[in-house]
Amino acid sequence: MTDRLITHLRHLDIAVPDYAKQREFYTNLWGLTPVVEEPGLSFLAAEGSPEQYVVRLRQAEDKRLDLIALGAEDRASVDALAQRLATAGVQLVGEPGALQTPGGGYGFRFFDVDGRTVEISCEVQVRAHRRIEEQESIPVKLSHVVINSPNPERTRAFYEQHLDFSLSDTLFHPNLGEAMYFMRCNPQHHSLAIARGPHVSLHHASFEMRGIDEYMRGTGRLLRNDIKKVWGPGRHLAGNNTFSYFLDPHGNTVEYTTELELLDEDTWHPHLYDFTQPEVSDQWGTANPMDEFVAAESFNDPDRGVFVAPPV
């Protein structure tokens, strides 16, 4: 098993112009809970997660991905990662120190090879969370984040070399080549995936539901409220997880999922899956076809936050 300094995915921070509309979507429709709020800033928790928050919303003139936050075991791990990155010439946003976000902790931020801001932290206070009940169709936790890169091979190499992520599986097209790398930092099939896209952007953020029934109830709630569905419901082959993709008010793709595969890392060997085969995209055959519409929505808008650290 790989000896990693990164332990898990913590949260995703996004900025949008219409903050009120975005907050309404993520709380009253998507099912997250506001825990700390300031003017133009909301920290939203998943009721089943010990993380202080899984999404942070910030009001800004431009839509952008503010940062992706990853957890580490302890201060020694945070310091070692900061030293490793700095030695390799990676640009740090700041040196390790006390965090000023809910739950506190110790951490630092840096720019990855594509210019998105990444935060690594430890000692963040655990939030009092609870068991999600049967038929309760709200997220248990943030499952994974998928990012677009015009050079996904380079991005994959960055996360493997500097942060010890491992490749779980790869999607490819017979004519276009490799299109998506599923990357893990623990036994979960993927906490991060890297997709080939025309520009740097957020591909989608995925939220784990309690089970199939809760996943379908959540999917139905979004459909009944006329939220634009991108793809699903269905079940992927890579990761063996269910999927229903929707657009938030600013065009970011968000996913309800459940049953993402847990791997035996000592015996796992990555697969190369041809996603032109229908069962690769959707084992059930219930989702709308993977077509140009699905792909175009997943490309999202070019990220305005490349190599620009968020102000908070």
UniProtKB/TrEMBL annotation:
InterPro entries: Glyas_Bleomycin-R_OHBP_Dase (IPR029068), Glyas_Fos-R_dOase_dom (IPR004360), GlyoxalaseI/FosfomycinResist (IPR050383), VOC_core (IPR037523). SUPFAM superfamilies: Glyoxalase/Bleomycin resistance protein/Dihydroxybiphenyl dioxygenase. Pfam families: Glyoxalase (PF00903). Residues 8-123, 141-259 form the VOC domain. PANTHER family: GLYOXALASE FAMILY PROTEIN (PTHR21366), METALLOTHIOL TRANSFERASE FOSB (PTHR21366:SF31). This is VOC family protein. It comes from Saccharopolyspora griseoalba.
